[in-house]
Amino acid sequence: MNRKDVLYLVVPCYNEEAVLPETAKQLLEKMYSMMEREMISRESRILFVNDGSRDRTWDIIEELHGKNPIYMGVKLSRNKGHQNALLAGLMTAKERADMAVSLDADLQDDVNVIDQMVEKYHEGNDIVYGVRSARKTDTFFKKFTAQGFYKIMKALGVDIVYNHADYRLMSRRAIEGLEEFHEVNLFLRGIVPLIGYSSAIVTYERHERFAGESKYPLKKMLAFATDGITSFSIKPIRLITTCGFLIFAVSMLMLIYFLVVYFTGKTVWGWTSTIVSIWAIGGLQLLAIGIVGEYIGKIYMETKARPKYIIEKILED
Questions:
Q1: Pairing of strands 71-76, 311-315
Q2: Which H or E run includes 165?
């Protein structure tokens, strides 16, 4: 075991003043515990990334840093979203750490699993995924939609770890590999498995949120899922093509049917089939345009190549 390995805990924060003091306390206890057992270097740090919070989150981070230099802070110039804030933290840690563990500030991820992640790292794994063993704390709706999302992603051919969010350990080499991916539309759960390198899984039970409100309401969850699907699979567009061929085939059959009816003299037609056809085809066309538009929008954002984040300030020794 290399006892000189520096560990950074990367914690994205957005309006987390209610939970941040307790999060800092629990993470500090965990870090000191691992230092005492010589699992990690005493140069290890807890890195909070302030993602444009509108409450006292950054003030609390500054206070924590002032009391103990083990706490570091990165302040983004504005809110850029969870994935970009996480990336900013990992890139900051890359130059300072041998490995980094990313986790949310709400204490739903079991911090005791960090020990197992570090052990897996010492066994030679560059990436260690934290996977939920159960979703007892989720509502039926959230559990159903979340599991459905992972299954859909798998069906679309996306290499994603089932029931894994963004609780993971990455070695410096893995983070350097992540840096090679330049897309603006970030979906780290799909990108990280593409890096390759040896990986392992540790399981844990997700806790209830300690305090504050969830930063992922239904609207954001749906947007996140859409980003994930359209960033890693073109199967939705191919599905449109398949539907187009099917509708064309059906229209040919209907044409034959109409000709037979016409020549047999049965020309009394109902309006139901006509209305249903108009609405069905019209709806399919709008859906097709929407899906294609989603991909075009992705291309538009990528071609701009705008910075994923801008760091305003870093608190460190």
A1: antiparallel
A2: strand 164-171
**Domain membership flag for residue 280:** yes
Answer whether residue 300 is part of any domain. Answer: yes
The string of DSSP letters for 179-204 reads: HT---SS--HHHHHHHH-S-EEEEEE
Q: Let me know the angle formed at the C-alpha of 186 by 116 and 79, rounded to the nearest 5 degrees.
A: 95
Whole-prediction pTM: 0.70
**187 and 276 in one domain?**
no
d(CA 259, CA 36): 85
**Residue 228 placed within a domain:** no
Hey, what amino acid is at 147? Answer: Q
Same domain, yes or no: 203 and 263:
no
CA dist., res. 131 & res. 173, Å (int): 22
Please indicate, yes or no, whether residues 295 and 311 belong to a single structural domain of this protein. Answer: no
Strands 99-102 and 164-171: antiparallel
Backbone conformation region of residue 81, classed left if phi is above 0, alpha if psi is from -120 to 50, else beta:
left
pLDDT tens string for the chain (317 positions)? 445 699 999 999 999 988 999 999 999 999 999 999 888 999 999 999 999 899 999 999 999 999 999 999 999 998 988 889 999 999 999 989 999 999 998 888 889 999 999 999 999 999 999 988 765 656 666 666 666 666 776 676 666 777 777 899 999 999 999 998 888 777 788 788 888 889 998 988 876 655 555 555 556 666 666 666 666 666 676 777 777 777 766 766 766 766 676 667 665 555 556 655 666 677 677 677 777 777 777 776 667 677 788 888 888 87
Looking at the structure, tell me whether residues 60 and 208 fall in a common domain: yes
